[in-house]
Automatic annotation (TrEMBL):
Description of how the protein assembles with itself and partners: Homodimer; disulfide-linked.
Similarity comment text for this entry: Belongs to the alternative oxidase family.
Organism of derivation: Microthlaspi erraticum
Protein name, entry field: Ubiquinol oxidase
Pfam families tied to this protein: AOX
Region called Disordered, residue ranges: 46-67
Bound cofactor: record note: Binds 2 iron ions per subunit.
Domain of life, source organism: Eukaryota
InterPro entries attached to this UniProt entry: AOX, AOX_sf
Keywords, in A-Z order: Electron transport, Iron, Membrane, Metal-binding, Mitochondrion, Mitochondrion inner membrane, Oxidoreductase, Respiratory chain, Transit peptide, Transmembrane, Transmembrane helix, Transport
Length: 323
């Protein structure tokens, strides 16, 4: 009979930051016949610093109040959480990215570069993007914080779709991808980090969340189909989308400089991800995000040019780490 066990992580457990290996579950030995007894798993409790200080101040007189403030880590399979530290030895508090994935954005990149559409597919891609700008402007108007947050939920889709399809192609043909799988997935992850940052600045309403579900569902399938039919068209369209993103973030900066949007302190996640100075502000965040979009513009126009020249992406080394 098939045995079902507990979830890999306990239902109420929230792991904050890095955790020592000593707090892992110590599983019992398998029962007779090779059947694991999941009901006899043991675990240790990890007190938070808050509870430890509280216990010290009270001299140990307070009783345990329903395991309040404790973090439980449950793992039968021996997957060990890693303790990650910064270069200065302090604890790394983010689980969504590692110190090795952080970087300083190249702000010197040319923001005015534009691919002039000449062929029919290029013109179709260009005007498709232009037609999408009108309803976006109408809906968000000058609420650039919400606009940035919402559009990043869509901007992270092309890299994921493209990377997935190039990955599948590599498997089908038993061939290398030239690094393009990693490059495209890297783009998708970078766009997702933009979203994680702006989530700290603007909170979506219920109807905006509903809009994300609808738009993402339509866009994912449409882009998937477009990439299958014509990768050169798909990459060109993303290149034009990134050009529009540069324009939007430039307008965002103007609103910040004019005082129409409060230049609040930069979220902590942005300071660590882009290696910003400790006193960085929202303006600094918009600057580095705009630079990221300019790099994505270049990569996608470059990918489209490769296809236009009758070549495949694998024939040109991918710009991995191009920030």
């Amino acid at each position: 009979m098939a045995m079902t066990g507990p979830r890999l992580f306990s239902t109420g457990a929230i792991v904050r930051g890095a955790v020592s290996h000593s707090h892992l579950i110590k599983p019992m030995a398998p029962a007779i016949g090779g059947v694991r007894d999941f009901g006899k798993m043991t675990f240790e409790k990890k007190k938070t610093e808050e509870n430890q200080s509280e216990k010290g101040s009270s001299g140990g007189g307070k009783a345990d109040q329903g395991n309040k403030g404790e973090e439980l880590i449950v793992s039968y399979w021996g997957v060990k959480p890693m303790k990650i530290t910064k270069e200065d030895g302090t604890e790394w508090k983010w689980s969504c990215f590692r110190p090795s994935e952080t970087y300083k954005a190249d702000l010197s990149i040319d923001l005015k570069k534009h691919h002039v559409p000449s062929t029919l597919p290029d013109k179709l891609a260009y005007w498709t993007v232009k037609s999408l700008r009108w309803p976006t402007d109408l809906f968000f108007k000058r609420r650039y914080g919400c606009r940035a947050m919402m559009l990043e939920t869509v901007a992270a889709v092309p890299g994921m779709v493209g990377g997935m399809l190039v990955h599948c192609k590599s498997l089908r043909r038993f061939e290398q991808s030239g690094g393009w799988i990693k490059a495209l997935l890297e783009e998708a992850e970078n766009e997702r980090m933009h979203l994680m940052t702006f989530m700290e600045v603007a909170k979506p309403n219920w109807y905006e969340r509903a809009l994300v579900i609808a738009v993402q569902g339509v866009f994912f399938n449409a882009y998937f189909l477009g990439y299958v039919i014509s990768p050169k068209f798909a990459h060109r369209m993303v290149g034009y989308l990134e050009e529009e993103a540069i324009h939007s973030y430039t307008e965002f900066l103007k609103e910040l400089d004019n005082g129409n949007i409060e230049n609040v302190p930069a979220p902590a996640i942005a300071i660590d991800y882009w290696r910003l100075h400790a006193n960085a502000t929202l303006r600094d965040v918009v600057m580095v995000v705009r630079a990221d979009e300019a790099h994505h513009r270049d990569v996608n126009h470059y990918a489209s040019d490769i296809h236009y020249q009758g070549r495949e992406l694998k024939e040109a080394p991918a710009p991995i780490g191009y920030h």
